[in-house]
């Protein structure tokens, strides 16, 4: 427990200095003769031909991008090709020492890395396993194409399979390793330990730590390598990922048998350029990426700079870093020197560097240099190397030719719903592993469990409303659902800021600290990108995870991780991977402009996310149960306004046992005849007051429908209600412009146009900053706004005197001013 780490003033006032140790720079000095005991002749040959295969793979891409043809094959490749020509030694050196259990994550410039990792894995897997993998991939489609007329051995067949699958992927073919939905910058193939590559610079920096966390928590073999560029070290999420990886708690607070520090190597493919900006000498001040390790932890991340223009120093370093990680001393950092002789992309005019510089690097081109080194040392014969190169180039060309051929490698049809069909996996998985879930105590002894047992789960008790202190509330509902899944799925972990001893900033987790070991519930750094990124990485490794953002306002800090990562990997895997991640986001109030915003609209706008916002204990428990049984990313909004509300609608009360509520089904909270009021979030309770007034003052009976979800959304109950009443008002606490309710109103207008007496009216918060708690009534929708808006724009209320201006003229005035 952190309580055992005493912050003693004596200790921290003591004089001293911080000592750094030297960070090695190109310390490798072994000759080929010395390396002969570490590599067989076949190893040398394999390294050489892997480098040559990668060079040819990209050379062909370069030719078709710049000239539209290669060796008589004309092809127009519409998509990107971020080539890494020149970086082959770095790719092969990185992958050579890895096993299939070691997982690589990478960047937009990863063709070389994925090929190198595949070749390395293929050499280590048995023929039977390779056949199994190839048969399973895309239902055997890729294998069928490459085995036709082929009679060689299984390893060569597997190499054909991967090169062809990769080209097909780049060319958006059904035969692509990700069915053409990943493409050049995102291609991956998990059976060979190749995990997502990322078009967002540094994107893998926050994701890969989650993968390493998965390995630790679930005692999986292997390490995680995060291959990212030198310029990506200017990205905040990379720093957050490093910080997440280097937390003291892994070694100081987690049980020693968990294995210590995260098994992650940040491998900087340092080619000295962003697109054209130079991190060295221009856009950063660190000069050596390796220096960054010194700022992270006392071990300085075991950081070093290594020459990655030669595969052998890098393989040597990789072997040593693997050992460090195996000993639980991670994370590690490698600053791998390389250079891309190709442009950033084929349209790059290289205006940012001199010809002379490129020529200097061409002179020491790793492919030629390694060839000469092997020949000079007598480690390989020139003819053998030449024959090997010719062999791989022939294969690569043949695979390219096949991938361009629409007969052999078709695209999905223009009317295909393929993309839509893989946006969500919509599965139920009870648990992602069979081992026994770990707990620290018998749950019957848990203080929170005992406290909840004494609470009242129904709207009334003995005919009276239930006092707040006694009511089973929204928090309890979420807690019970979490505990249920924690006790079934051993892979399930939860983390976020102040999640452990504090019990989550809003006490939802209170009681879990006593129940769960550290590795299942822990405090993260204040790193929203790091938190969501790690959850994505954990999910990609197929573990269940709950991450928390303390306030919706902090979504901006994790924007990329929520909008580009969490949402997209299921579809980019063409349905191969699940994303069993629940992202809890608490919506604030009373805390002003930067802590009180409802940003459901942002999440709802992004394809690939399920977005829900339950506000009753019954809904919170049932929907969290569903989210935690599912396989899709669920952004689970919660409202700080109503955490302690008891159940007010479900007369039978909140069941003690397990039940699920389908995500996307709205709930009718009160039956009515005259008007439909639709809400999302805590506006439900404002609507209740408004509905009571409508009934009492005007005899109008309102039907209250709580959407409970923004996406997916089943319109059946809404349509039915609107057809009955002919009138609809929609309300939420998000600012009115672009809120979820605007989408729902527009859709309902289309679906129910003939049945509507008036256009749907949307009430949201004002398009302002959220003002101070004392002024919130000016900002958030109030019951009077509902009545005034109905009076002005739907149904005149006899004798009603509006207190606010909800007229259409006012709507025009506000939009004109942008407020
Ligand atoms: C977040 C983000 N910002 C900018 C870009 C545009 N961009 C693509 S590659 C690149 C340079 C990346 O340099 P580095 O990380 O060193 O990788 P390298 O391209 O050298 O392999 C930039 C700026 C992007 N894809 N993502
Ligand atoms: Mg770079």
**Small molecules in complex:** thiamine diphosphate, magnesium ion
Mean pLDDT: 97
Q: For the terminal residues, how far apart are their CA atoms?
A: 49 Å
- Biggest sheet, open or closed, and with what strands and sense? 7 strands, mixed
What is the strand content?
5-15%
Count of helix runs: 31
Radius of gyration: 30 Å
Task: Describe, in plain words, how this protein is organized in 3D.
This protein has 819 residues and is α/β, with parallel strands linked by helices. Strands 12-11-13-14-16-15-20 form a seven-stranded mixed β-sheet, sandwiched between helices. A six-stranded parallel β-sheet has the order 4-3-5-6-8-7, sandwiched between helices. Strand 21 (728-735), helix 28 (740-752) and strand 22 form a beta-alpha-beta unit. Helix 3 crosses helix 16 (382-404), helix 4 (88-96) runs parallel beside helix 5 and helix 10 crosses helix 21 (528-540). The radius of gyration is 30 Å and the shape is globular. The chain binds thiamine diphosphate and magnesium ion. Residues 107-109, 199-201, 229-232, 269, 271, 273-275, 344 line the site of thiamine diphosphate (TPP).
Quick recap:
The protein is of the alpha/beta class and 819 residues long.
Question: What is the secondary structure topology, with strand pairs?
Answer:
Blueprint: H1 9-13, H2 32-35, H3 41-67, E1 69-70, E2 73-74, H4 88-96, E3 103-107, H5 111-124, H6 127-136, H7 141-147, H8 154-170, E4 194-198, H9 203-217, E5 224-229, H10 236-245, H11 249-252, E6 264-270, H12 279-283, E7 304-307, H13 311-326, E8 332-337, H14 355-363, H15 366-376, H16 382-404, H17 418-422, H18 447-453, E9 460-461, E10 464-465, H19 474-486, E11 493-496, H20 512-515, E12 521-523, H21 528-540, E13 545-549, H22 559-566, H23 569-572, E14 581-587, H24 600-605, E15 610-612, H25 617-629, E16 634-639, E17 667-670, E18 675-680, H26 683-698, E19 702-706, E20 709-711, H27 716-725, E21 728-735, H28 740-752, E22 761-765, H29 776-779, H30 783-793, H31 808-817
Parallel strand pairs: 3-4, 3-5, 5-6, 6-8, 7-8, 11-12, 11-13, 13-14, 14-16, 15-16, 18-19, 18-21, 21-22
Antiparallel strand pairs: 1-2, 9-10, 15-20, 17-19
The structure holds thiamine diphosphate and magnesium ion (MG).
Thiamine diphosphate is lined by residues 107-109, 199-201, 229-232, 269, 271, 273-275, 344.
């Amino acid at each position: 427990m952190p309580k055992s780490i005493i912050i003693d003033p004596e200790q921290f006032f003591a004089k001293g200095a911080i000592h750094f140790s030297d960070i090695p720079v190109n310390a490798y000095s072994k000759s080929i003769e010395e390396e002969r005991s570490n590599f067989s002749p076949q190893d040398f040959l394999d390294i050489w031909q892997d480098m040559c295969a990668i060079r040819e793979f990209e050379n062909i891409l370069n030719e078709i991008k710049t000239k539209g043809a290669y060796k008589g094959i004309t092809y127009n490749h519409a998509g990107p090709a971020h080539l890494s020509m020149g970086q082959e030694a770095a790719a092969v050196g990185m992958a050579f020492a890895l096993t299939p259990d070691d997982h690589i994550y990478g960047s937009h410039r990863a063709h070389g890395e994925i090929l190198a990792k595949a070749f390395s894995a293929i050499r280590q897997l048995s023929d039977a396993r390779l056949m199994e993998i190839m048969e399973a991939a895309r239902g055997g489609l890729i294998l069928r194409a490459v085995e036709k007329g082929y009679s060689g051995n299984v390893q060569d067949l597997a190499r054909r399979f991967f090169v062809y699958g990769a080209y097909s992927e780049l060319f958006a073919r059904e035969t692509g390793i990700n069915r053409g939905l990943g493409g050049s910058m995102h291609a991956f193939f998990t059976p060979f330990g190749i995990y997502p590559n990322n078009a967002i610079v540094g994107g893998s920096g926050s994701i890969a730590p989650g993968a390493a966390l998965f390995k630790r928590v679930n005692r999986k073999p292997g390490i995680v390598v995060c291959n990212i560029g030198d310029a990506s070290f200017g990205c905040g999420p990379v720093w957050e990922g490093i910080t997440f990886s280097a937390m003291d708690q892994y070694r100081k607070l987690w049980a020693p048998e968990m294995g210590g520090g995260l098994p992650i190597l940040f491998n900087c493919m340092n080619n000295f350029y962003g697109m054209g900006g130079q991190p060295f000498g221009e856009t950063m001040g660190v000069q050596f990426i390796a220096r960054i390790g010194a700022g992270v932890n006392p071990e300085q991340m075991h950081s070093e700079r290594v020459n990655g223009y030669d595969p052998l120093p890098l393989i040597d370093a990789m072997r040593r870093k693997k050992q460090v990680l195996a000993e639980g001393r991670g994370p590690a950092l490698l600053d791998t020197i390389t250079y891309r002789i190709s442009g950033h992309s084929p349209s790059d005019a290289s205006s940012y560097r001199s010809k002379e510089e490129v020529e200097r690097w061409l002179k020491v081109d790793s492919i030629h240099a390694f060839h000469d080194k092997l020949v000079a040392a007598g480690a390989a014969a020139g003819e053998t190397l030449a024959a090997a190169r010719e062999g791989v180039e022939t294969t690569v060309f043949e695979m390219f030719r096949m991938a361009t051929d629409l007969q052999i490698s078709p695209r999905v049809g223009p009317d295909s719903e393929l993309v839509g069909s893989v946006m969500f996996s919509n599965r139920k998985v009870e648990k992602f592993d069979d081992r026994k879930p770990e707990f620290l105590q018998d749950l019957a002894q848990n203080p929170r469990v005992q406290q909840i047992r004494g609470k009242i789960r129904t709207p009334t008790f003995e005919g009276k409303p239930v006092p707040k202190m006694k009511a089973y509330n929204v928090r309890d509902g979420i807690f019970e659902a979490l505990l249920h899944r924690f006790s079934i799925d051993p892979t399930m972990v939860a983390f976020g800021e102040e999640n452990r001893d504090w019990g989550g900033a809003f006490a939802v987790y209170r009681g879990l600290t006593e129940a769960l070991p550290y590795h299942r519930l822990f405090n993260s750094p204040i790193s929203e990108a790091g938190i969501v990124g790690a959850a994505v990485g954990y999910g990609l490794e197929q573990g269940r995870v709950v991450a928390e953002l303390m306030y919706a306002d902090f979504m901006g800090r994790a924007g990329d991780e929520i909008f580009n990562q969490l949402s997209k990997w299921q579809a980019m895997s063409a349905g191969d991977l699940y994303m069993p991640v629940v992202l809890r986001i608490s919506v604030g109030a009373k805390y002003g402009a930067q802590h009180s915003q409802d940003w459901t609209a942002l999440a709802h706008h992004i394809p690939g996310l399920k977005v829900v916002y339950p506000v009753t204990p019954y809904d919170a428990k049932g929907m969290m149960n569903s989210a935690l049984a599912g396989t899709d990313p669920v952004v689970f909004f919660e409202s700080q306004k109503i955490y302690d509300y008891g159940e007010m609608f479900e007369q039978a009360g909140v069941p003690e046992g397990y039940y699920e509520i389908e995500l996307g089904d709205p709930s009718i909270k009160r039956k009515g005849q005259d008007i439909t009021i639709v809400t999302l979030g805590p506006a439900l309770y404002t609507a209740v007051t408004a509905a009571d007034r409508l009934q009492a003052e005007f005899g109008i009976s309102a039907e209250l429908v709580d959407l409970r979800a923004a996406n997916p959304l089943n319109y059946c109950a809404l349509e039915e209600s609107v057809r009955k009443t002919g009138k609809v008002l929609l309300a939420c606490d998000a600012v009115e412009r672009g809120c979820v309710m605007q989408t729902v109103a527009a859709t309902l207008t289309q679906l129910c146009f003939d049945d509507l007496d008036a256009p749907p009216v949307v009430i949201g918060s004002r398009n302002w900053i959220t003002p101070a708690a004392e002024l919130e009534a000016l900002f958030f929708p109030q019951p009077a706004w509902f009545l005034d808006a109905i009076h002005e724009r739907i149904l005149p209320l006899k004798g009603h005197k509006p207190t606010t201006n909800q007229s259409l003229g006012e709507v025009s005035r506000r939009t004109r001013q942008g407020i």
